[in-house]
Write a structure and sequence with these properties.
The protein is built from seven helices and six strands; from the N terminus they run ααβββαβββαααα. It has 249 residues and is α+β, with helices and mostly antiparallel strands. It has two domains: 169 residues, Beta-Lactamase; 63 residues, no CATH class. Strands 3-2-1-6-5-4 form a six-stranded antiparallel sheet, with helices on both faces. α1 runs parallel beside α4. The protein is globular, with a radius of gyration of 23 Å.
Length: 249
Amino acid sequence: MVKVINSAEFLLNQLGELSYHLTNVPHKDQSYFEKPLQIINEALGFHISVLYKITNVIENDLILEVMTVCNPEHIRPDLVEGTKICLEVDNPRVEFTNEVSAFKNRNVSAINIPGWGCDIVGSIYMPENLGHGYLLAGDFFGNESGVREHEVRVCEIMCNMLSSVLMKTQFEKLASYDGLTSLLNSRAIRVELEKAFQRQKRKTIWLGAVVLADIDFFKKINDNYGHIQGDIEMLPKCCLKDAAHFLQH
């Protein structure tokens, strides 16, 4: 197989479309990554494009989750959406060399991996308090194994774009939502209440209600475990998250 090589002008146009997509199109969940995965497949000519989420880093272990994979020819059956992959940072499996290298260097890695193994992987960096970030990868199967410099640059630019947009989105979310429960924080609640009151003033009939809820016996949990336990994986945190999930659904 010979990989399709598009002109620099074509790739620049693709990056321009990505910029427009990230800044002007409403996004939810993984829609940020649809265009970059498409560029890896169609514009850069890789057979597979993969989005990994870095779910955790525990000492020397890097835990990835396959969030999205475009694998139309079913060449990599090991890459299935929802699969968790645990890698040793200091001694990764050969086929995941670029994934670990990109994570460690917070950049693009394009080490030649014979056989199975993504040929290019870029790191989408996020501060730890916002999550561990993502990896964007492409794999090509054929006689041509080298990755060109302009492909590395395109991947790097895409990852930088995604990192900036995701961090902006997360900071905006933190300004209005509680980091533990994902419910509106007190400032945002006051803003929403004021909007509701203003809407009701313009109506001839006032209809509305404010509902307050309390978790029974939560004081006993705090007395036993301490208030500071709310920021770690202990019973108080699980209790609050479960209550929030119930309210949201």
